[in-house]
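Quick check before the chapter quiz. The format below is the same one you will see on the exam, so make sure you can read both the input and the output lines.
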Amino acid sequence: MATLRNFVPSTAESVSELLHAWNIEEPAPSFEAPVDRSPFTISGWVLSVHEATHILIDIAGRRFSSPIDIERTDVVQALSEGYEGLHDVVKCGFSIVTDIPFSDVSSFDIAVGHEDSPSWLGTFFFEEGSKVQVGREGWLFLDNDTNNSVEQYTGDIALADQLKLDWLNYIEHFSVDADQRCSKWRFLLAPGKEYILPEYYPHTSSPQSTPNQFFEIFKANPRFIYPIAELTKHKALTYWKGDTHWTDYGAYVAFTQVVSGFNLDIEAFERHTKITYTIDHSTGDLAEKLAPPPLHPKIAFNTADSTSTVTFSNHINNNGKIVIFENSSALIHSTLVIFGSSSSDSLVKPFTLLFSRVVQVHSSASVDTSILNHECPDYVLLQSNSRFILECPQVFGTYSIKSVIADKLQRLTDLEKQRLKVKVASYQFGVSHKNNFYRALSTI
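Here is the expected output.
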């Protein structure tokens, strides 16, 4: 998460009256705060009106100072035309290293001093960068996220050779395993909406974006699906202003590509199933970070006539979530297992009308082989979001959803555990009784 450096002057005139020019170089205006106990350091340069001799900072009642005596010929060369007599102030740099850990500093006051008389400039304070950036026409996009989605889009991040090798090894081992099980499989990458709606995004795309680098690795593998062209064709419907994810309609567009990739008849499905949508107004995962959170319209899958039933859910949020759907009226009496990300929540809806049993596992394409052993699925879908490319799934065969669930459960309070236990116990575990396996995985 980026940390932003902000400044509030002591008075409106304080800086202009005291300084010709100045620059704080460390910490930078936007930076990654260190996670260790490294000491807080501030450095830069200053050209003062009254020939200040030192810089002072106050942090939580403690004062630190540094003489302004570091030679900065670069500053002189850059500003020599704007200030007469600048050759006399070549030594305009300063650096203060404190004994206070960086993590303990939320703000500090800064002053310039001449002899023993400080003149206070104002206060610097730090805050986390907003995770939302507002694009053109009010479209909201993710920002300052741990996956560096902006830098991935602009091509400022190169996939490391080891990361490429890890992905290749992971897919190779999974493919061999799936072939041995006679399971058909596909890998679906959900594009970030900035790739579908670049005209609203306040950054310039690059041919070296991480999804492009990723698909350069797997371009010869027909099992990989990145439906950017199909989603872009219907861009007004496939994503919505207030959320990072595709709409249910966008998910359905991706669904048709996966179905075709499995060599199944999408036209037969659409003849068999009545697909309708409604327009909902909702606060998405981006809009909810704003105050007040705005509502935006989105296209939602109409499940009023659905014959699919949730026969098990462990009610875990995000990673570790398992939901099972059964549908005796489905077009295909087969099992699909989805190892997906948050985008699979909308993607799973049409799949529950196509397959008689769908097991949705939130793991961002990490595969738990114990689930494959238990289900013996006819079809397997690996699904992830484009911004997660920088992290390869765990070495194939080592991922355990049970461990992820156990870690989630350990963080719950006793009351939360009791409520969760009641919710899980309410399911009848489906017609096949296979769901007892998942109840055991989610034991509290």
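If your answer matched, good. The mean pLDDT is 89.
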